[in-house]
Amino acid sequence: MQSGPFSMFTHVRASSRALEWLDLQTALQRAPNTLAAYGRGLDDYLSFCARSGIDPEQAGRTDVAAYVKDMSDRPPTETRSAPGLANATLRQRITVIRLFYDHLVEEGVRAVNPVARGMSRHGRSLVPAQRRLPWIPTDEEWRMILAAARAESLRNRLMLALAYDCALRREELCSLASGDFDPAHGTVMVRAETTKTRRGRCVPYSRATGELHAAYLAERRTLANRRGPLFLSVSTRNLAAPVTRWTWSKVIRRLGLRAGVPRLSTHSFRHLCLTDLARSGWEAHEIAAFAGHVSIQTTLIYIHLSARDLSARFARGMASVHGERMALLQEQLR
Fold first, then answer.
1. Percent of the chain having pLDDT more than 90?
2. Whose CB among 15, 89, 200, 331 lies 3.0–4.6 Å from 85's, allowing a Cys bridge?
3. Phi-psi category of residue 26: left, alpha or beta, with phi > 0 → left and psi -120 to 50 → alpha
4. Are 327 and 308 in contact (CB under 8 A)?
C-alpha cells in the first residue's frame, strides 16, 4: 500500500489500521471521490492525534470533541476566508472517523465507538447541520457570465451549455463520452458510475446546445478519431487527454473573475438550472428525477426563489390586501 492510492497521506500511511480500513473501502468499490475524501479526512484526524499526543485507537469522546474544536478554530487560508472549516466539511470528517471506529469495533480493537451517532445524550448533534440556500447569479450577472464566455474555446462553451442545460455536476460533465449522446432525440445519458448517487439518468438538451455539440465534434476529430471521453485537452503537455474536473474548475474560476462574478463555481450552473425549472412550474419530483436526486428533500434545498422573485410576489400579495382594505375603508367612511 506504500505506493497505493493513499500513499500521499502521511499519517494514514503510518497506520496499519487506517490502511486496512481504506483497503476495505476500496474492495467495496467506493467511488474514487469517496475514497479520496475518506483518506483525506482520516489523515487529518490522525494528524491531530499525533499533534495532541492522542493514541487514536484509544481515543474517547473528549478527544473527538477536541478534534471538532480544532477544526472549528483553524485560521483562514488562501482558499478559505473565514476561520474554521466549513460545516459540510466538519460533518464529513466526523462521518469518516465514525466509520473508521465502526471498523475498529467490528474487528475487536475497541469496545465502543467514541463518535456518537445522531443526537448526543445532551440532545444535539455533535456537529449541527447548517442548511444554506445555494447561490445563483442574478439575471444581470448571468448576462455578464455569458458575455465573458464568448471568449472561451468551443469546448468550454459547450461544457458551460451542458452544465446549465442538463444540470450536470462537475464529475458528470467531465466524464461524458461521445457515445453518451443521442443527437436524433436531443438527449444525453448520464452514466450511473459517474454520478454521486450511482443512479444513471437520461436528460434532454436544447437545440442551441446541440449545435455547439455538432460543431465541437468536428473540432474534436482533429485531436482524436476514436470514440471515448468527449472533452479533450488541447494543451501540448497532455494533448488529447481527457479534461479533468480540476481543469474545469480553473476554467470557471477564470471565467467568473473575468465576468466580475467571483462567486461563480462549477455547481452554479446546476443550481441555476434547477431553480429555473422550479420557476417554470416543474413539480419537485420531476426536478428530482432530472437532477438525479435520491431524496425530494435534497431537491427542496436546491430549489429556491431569488430575493427578487420573493419581493415581487410579496408586492403583488400586499397590493391585493391593500386594495381590499382600502375598499372596505372607503365603504365605511362614506
1. 62
2. 89
3. alpha
4. no
Residue 190 pairs with which residues in a beta bridge? 201
What DSSP letter does each residue of 88-109 carry, written as one string?
HHHHHHHHHHHHHHHHHHHTTS
Burial call 121-154: b when 16+ CB within 10 Å, e when fewer: eeeeebbeeeeeebebbeeebbebbbebbeebee
What is the domain partition of the chain in residue ranges?
A: 10-106, 139-303
Phi, psi of 229 (to 5 degrees): -50, 135
Residue type, 78: E
In 20-155 the beta strands, taken as DSSP E runs, fall at none
Query: Does the pTM of the predicted model rise above 0.85?
Result: no
Q: What is the CATH number of domain 10-106?
A: 1.10.150
Contact status, residue 87 vs residue 127, Cβ threshold 8 Å: yes
Mean pLDDT in the chain? Answer: 86
- pLDDT (average), residues 157-178: 96
Q: Longest Cα pair distance anywhere in the chain, in angstroms?
A: 91
> Residue 241 — pLDDT band, cuts 50, 70, 90?
very high
Q: How far apart are CA 7 and CA 19, in angstroms?
A: 10
Question: What's the count of helices (H) and strands (E) in the chain, helices before strands?
Answer: 14, 3
**Higher local confidence (pLDDT), 2 or 198:** 198
Is residue 154 within 8 Å of residue 215, measured between CB atoms? yes
> Which residue reads 455533535 in cell numbers?
126
Tens-place pLDDT, residues 39-98: 999 999 999 999 999 999 999 999 999 999 999 999 887 666 678 888 888 989 999 999
Q: Which residue has the cell 480540476?
A: 246
Class of domain 139-303: mainly alpha
118 pLDDT more than 80:
no
Q: Judge whether residue 307 has pLDDT over 50.
A: no
Strand (E) or helix (H) holding 290: helix 284-291
Q: What share of the chain is helix, strand, coil (3-state, %, to 5)?
A: 55, 5, 40
CB 248 within 8 Å of CB 266: yes
